[in-house]
Amino acid sequence: MNVLINALNHIRLAWLEQSAYAMKVAVAVLSVGLVHAAIAAESAPPELRIGFQKSAVNLVILKQQGALEKAFPQTKVKWVEFPAGPQILEALSVGSLELGFTGDTPPVFAQAAGKPLYYIGSEPPKPRSSAILVLADSKLHSLSDLKGKKIAFQKGSSAHFLVIRALKKAGLTWADIQPIYLAPADARAAFERGSVDAWAIWDPYYAATQVSIKARPLADGRGLSDNNSFYLASKPLVEKYPQSIKTILKSLSVADEFVQSNRLDAVKYISNFSGLDQQTVTLFLSRRPPSPATPVPAALIANQQSVADSFQELGLIPAKIQVADLVWKPTH
């Protein structure tokens, strides 16, 4: 009898263990199902209007490959090219875009003006990708030589911050130069005519000018500015479609992997889109490190705060801002 009872107990324990295992499996399957259901329930945005520049390599690759159109088949994806970041963020703030890509300075001016937008992602620093240029035969050879000179750059752009940092390193003040606020195309024309003494600019305009007229960099961003770049989104995109944002950032990182492992094809994609010759694109990409897109890390938030503080200290924005207030924090 005892043997029979022990046998029945073993059978009962085995059944309970199997039931517990089955329950764990069921719970795991249910959890995965709930995650998928949450993603599906969110749905994709009906429209995704993207503002970008020629410097936005990952976005250019996505555009050329139609990757976001495939990721969001029910979404109307529209691509809008701009000459610089300030124009992108102005369009974003008035509801003409859902997503944009800029350098470090435009978001500072946008936040100072109370624009409704959020940092959703960033790429690693690219200090070699911007420079203060002079003509090949210029008599300017050091940053201190900029005193009293006319320097062209896009107001509120990353080049603006580069000039601020260059002056500080040279022991000069903002009052020591004549800032000439021009969009990239107009700045290049003025630079080539000799109407300005120097031009602060980023790639690929920087590379194109080097290739075409052998312009000389007085200094690049190394030791001056990290030249960080950010993805920014409208308030509705952040509030309603967080899962879509995660998909976008992943797609951007996949595009960067393509650039790193298929350099010749990437050069062709960018050249075909931009109209820039392949020599210019190759030079441009040679200065660009691997650039996956990720949610903004704490170190870059702190770096961006220092950018904002620099403009506030010079009185170029009216009051101190807190960058972290507008940084999107994804939930798992």
Describe the structure.
With 332 residues, the protein is an alpha/beta fold. The chain has 2 domains: 43-125 and 231-326, D-Maltodextrin-Binding Protein, domain 2, CATH 3.40.190.10; 128-220, Periplasmic binding protein-like II (D-Maltodextrin-Binding Protein, domain 2). The protein contains 13 helices and 10 strands. The strands form 2 sheets. The chain has a 5-stranded mixed sheet with strand order 2-1-3-10-4, with helices on both faces. The protein has a 5-stranded mixed sheet with strand order 7-6-8-5-9, sandwiched between helices. Strand 6, helix 6 and strand 7 (178-181) form a beta-alpha-beta unit. Helix 2 (57-65) crosses helix 10 (242-261). The longest helix is centred in the first third of the chain and has 41 residues, at 2-42. The radius of gyration is 26 Å and the shape is globular. It starts with a helix and ends in a 19-residue tail after the last helix. 43% of the residues are buried. Mean pLDDT is 89; it is low at 1-41.
The shape is: globular
- What string gives the helices and strands in order? HEHHEHEHEEEHEHEHEEHHHHH
Going by CATH, the architecture of the largest domain would be 3-Layer(aba) Sandwich
Number of helices: 13
Major sheet, described briefly?
5 strands, mixed
Assign the structural class, choosing from mainly alpha, mainly beta, alpha/beta, alpha+beta, or little secondary structure.
alpha/beta
Tally of separate domains: 2
First and last CA, distance: 55 Å
Rg is 26 Å
CATH class of the largest domain: Alpha Beta
